[in-house]
Every structure is written in structure tokens, then in C-alpha cells.
Amino acid sequence: MLTFPSQSSSVVVSVGVQCHVGKQRTENQDRVTRSETPFGDLFVVADGIGGYQGGAEAAQVTVDGFVNFLKANGNLTLPDALQQAVRSVNAALRTRSAARNDQHGMGSTVVLCAVNGNQVTYAHAGDSRAYLLRGGHLQQLTRDHSVMERMIAQGLLTPAQAREHPDASVLTRALGQSTDISLDIAGVTIQPKDALLLCSDGLWGYARHEEIEAVAAAESLSASAVASAMLNLALEGGGGDNISIQFLRFLPLEPAKKTAATMLGMPAKWGLAALALASVLVIAIIAMATWNNQHPVNPTIAPVTSAAKQTPPVASNTQRPEAPPPAQTSKPTPQQPSPNTATKTVSQKTKVAMIRVENGSTGEWAHDFGKLAYLEPIEQRTNAVCLSLGGSVRMLYYSSQSAPVATKVQQDLKLSASQMKELSADVLSHCSSYQMVAMPAVPSISDAGKTAQESAEEKAREVKGAIQNTIPPLPTPTSPQ
After folding, report:
1. 292 confidence band (pLDDT: 50, 70, 90)
2. Ranges 21-25, 133-137, 170-174, 284-288: which has the least confidence
3. 474: Cβ–Cβ under 8 A, 6 or more apart, which residues?
4. Which one, of 195, 88, 94, 179, lies nearest residue 141 by Cα?
5. pLDDT tens digits along 427-458
6. Do 362 and 232 have their domain in common?
């Protein structure tokens, strides 16, 4: 799960992603990507047109083309950049299609969105879709460019009939299929607790809308778990196509804490000046106190008279008073660290997350870490993504930033090389915000893998069963008499 703040101060975005070949296809011709652009964070789902050679390449050209064009053309307005980008990608696909016989007819659908603060611009061509979840209800934002959608709009078919129609997958618009191409573009203002779903037809074609909605609205699931549960719905519904999912959940940011200037009623622009002045005064007071401490005034010495000032003292070795013994200060010897030094040492301990999982215990780690004064072990519970890191032996994961400490831990605890593994900070963030994660051993790797997906699979089964109990099955098509 990727988590990042948007450019607005009101929401933070969590993202769950799945891209799966499905049960019946031998090649995954879908592509998904996320990239930073001058227009905000760009999310793209592309579905290579099935049945044609080069579908996977077409989808890759599509996602790369949009990312590269938007990054290089930040001087344009976003709608203009998107329309020029789709024409550029379309031309590239048609050039490749004409150059190679085995890729003749290659093409791709696309759905994308650019998240800039609370503003989301979305666009599409084909039957890959965008949905908005708000207040627990899932609303389809895009309208498919397909023969079936046109017949539904004309009242010739119901949505239920269209799902079973043999021409359900015939498109009226896709990249690479004609010389003229454009995107349908619109926007939405995001509210906290909203969610966006971008997906290929491998999801909505094999899972009911009510099932997808129930999973998307499950606040107990993380964004990653939601995407996994949706994937399971599509697979259980037949999985007859590639499945691509990007689920974006927008959560409210905690309000910033009030500054001292704000609490005192000062204008915000005065806060920095007041803080600077206060800092100068504090430094001056400390400096004065330090000088006075190093130059104490002897109260037994009489004040110097004006006459004495005019008579310079006569230097004489015989009359020079004996130097007083050095003043005793509170500065500790190296063997006796001061309270401040001790506090600093404690604050510099490396925090390590001890993961508590079912059938696993942190007790062994806690015992070992208790021997190491330079570690601060903190017990944490896990989630499905974090649990997937578990294995049959206990493991200490660490980022490159904490590698020196991890090496020392390995030496002090005599851990084997198989019990140590460096991971990226992004991967470790699924378990903890710390740079070291201690995972207990689980009974077996297969059991751990099963547990890692269990919450998402259980939610998918639960939702699917509930929906099927309340909604009658689709009517079986009958042949004309």
C-alpha cells in the first residue's frame, strides 16, 4: 500500500493496487501505473485490446505515453495536455501496428485521473472505468465507449441483458483504432472519506456492482485489502479477463497543532518574528548566566576608588599572590555522564518494531532485545501485507538507513544471514514507521501466505454471499421461438 499526502492540506491518499492475469488468459495485457507530474499525482489503467497481437505492448505504450507527455508539458492546461497526449499515444500505436504484421490492430483502452489537492480530473477512452465512493455509495463516473452502452442509452437493452450479450465487449472508441481519438474528461472535488476506483473490465465484468460497492465501503479494510478483496470477487465470478484495480482512499489529515503565537492571539505573520526575538533573549540570558558563573564576584574585595584607578599596580614577583585553586565546576568526568548526556543517549536508541501475529510471539525478540542497550523495542500488531513477509524462521528486516545498527544486532545476537534481510523503506512502511522490523516465526510459509490473504478473501466471500442472498439471479437468455 502506497500512502502519500496530496497537495491539499485536508486529505491524505492511501492506494491499493492489483493487476492479475485472471483465470482464463495466458498473458496479462493490462498495465497500471502511478507517477508524479506537474499536474499532480497521475494514476493510469490501460487494457490492451484482447484478441489482438501486441495487446500488452499497446497497454505499456499507453501508460508510458501519458506519463511522459504530462511530465514534459506542464506549461499546458491539464485538459489540453490530456487531449494532446492521447493523440500522441494513438499515433505511436498506429505506427507500430502498421510496421509489424503480428501487431496489426493493436490498441488499448485507458482510464486515468490526476489528483491535485482536493481536485481530481479523470478521463477515459474505451470501457475501463472510474468510480467515486461517497457516503458508502459507489457511483460510476465514466460511460463506456461500447456498442452495449449505446444500446442501453437508446433503451434497446437493460444493463442485465447487456452483460450477457455476445457483443458486450465490442468497443466504439479505443486508442490505436482510428486516426481521430479524444478523451472524455471531467472533474470532481474530493471530500474526506471519499474513494476513487479505476479498473479494467476484468473487474466490473465479473463482479456485481453491489459486491464491489460493499467491499469499497468496508472501512475496516485498508486500501490494499480492498483492492485484494475486489480481485477475489472477480476471480470467484469467473476471472475470464485480465483484472486491474487502483483504489484510492482519501482520508482527512489531522489539523495542525496551534503554535504559541496563534494561541496568544498573534497574527500568523508575527509568529516567526516573535519566536526569533524570544530565541535571542534566551540565548542572551544563558550567555550572561554562563559568564557570571565563570567570573564570580568576591564580596570581600573593596570597591576600587578613583585614586586607585589612577595609580597603576607595580609588578612584583615577590608580591604576587598565590594563584587560587581551580574552581570546582559541575562538569562531570567521562566516567560520570551528566543527566543531559544520559537523556541524549536514550533518545538516540534505535526503535525496532516487534510484530505480533497470530501463532507467533514477540517474547523471544523482547528477551534478546532486552540485552541490547542501543535498541528500543516497540510491540506492534500486523496487517495482511506485513504478515506476508513472515516465514518459518524469525526475521529481522531493516532499511539501508538502519543497516549499521542491524549489522551490530546480528553480531550481538548471533543471527544467521538467513534471518536478516534489507528491504526498502516503502516495503517496511506496510508494517511500521520504523526502519527496523522484527518478525516472529510462523508455523510455515504456506500458512503465513494463507493468513496474509485471509482477511481480503473472507470479506469477498462474505459480501458475495450476502449479495447473492438478496438479489435474484440474472435471467437465463432464451432462444427466440
Report:
1. low
2. 284-288
3. 160, 163, 164
4. 195
5. 788 788 889 999 887 644 334 344 445 666 77
6. no
Q: What cell was used for 231?
A: 480481485
Query: Could you tell me if 84 and 207 lie in one domain?
Result: yes
The DSSP bridge partners found for residue 47 are 30, 109
Scan for cell 492475469, then name that residue.
21
Our count of domains for the chain comes to: 2
Taking CA 212 as the corner, what is the angle to CA 199 and CA 67, rounded to the nearest 5 degrees? Answer: 20
Q: Would you give the end-to-end CA distance of the chain in angstroms?
A: 53
Which strands make up the sheet holding 375-381, listed edge to edge? 375-381, 350-356, 436-439, 395-398, 420-422
DSSP codes joined into one string, 10-75 = SEEEEEEEEEE--SS-SS--EEEEEEEETTEEEEEEEEEPTTSTTHHHHHHHHHHHHHHHHHH-TT
Distance CA 89, CA 46 (A): 12
pLDDT band of residue 364 (cuts 50, 70, 90) is confident
The pLDDT > 90 percentage for the chain reads 46
15 within 8 A of 248, measured Cβ to Cβ: yes
Kindly state the cell numbers that stand for 235: 476471480
**In the beta sheet, which residues pair with residue 188?**
120
Rounded to whole angstroms, how far apart are CA atoms 114 and 88?
Answer: 18
Q: How far is it, in rounded angstroms, from Cα 238 to Cα 290?
A: 78
Q: Is residue 455 part of a domain?
A: yes
Quote the domain boundaries for residue 439: 347-462
Same domain, 386 and 241: no
- Tell me the one-letter amino acid at 155: G
The answer on 248 and 123 residing in a single domain is yes
CATH of the domain at 19: 3.60.40.10
Q: What's the pTM?
A: 0.58
CA dihedral sign of residues 329, 333, 338, 340: positive
* DSSP secondary structure string for all residues of 286-330: HHHHHHHHHS---TTSPPPPHHHHHSPPPP-TTTPPPPPPPPP-S
Q: How far is CA 362 from CA 276, 388, 444, 449, in A?
A: 47, 17, 17, 19
Given CA atoms 377, 380, 385, 388 in this order, what sign does their dihedral have?
A: positive
Q: In whole numbers, what is the pLDDT of the chain averaged over residues?
A: 78
pLDDT category of residue 36 using cuts at 50, 70 and 90: very high
pLDDT in tens, 67-83: 999 999 999 999 999 99
| DSSP-assigned letters across all residues of 388-453 | TT--SS-EEEE-GGGHHHHHHHHHHHT--GGGEEE--HHHHTTT-SSSEEEE---S-HHHHHHHHH
pLDDT of residue 446: 37
* Mean of pLDDT values over 262-282: 56
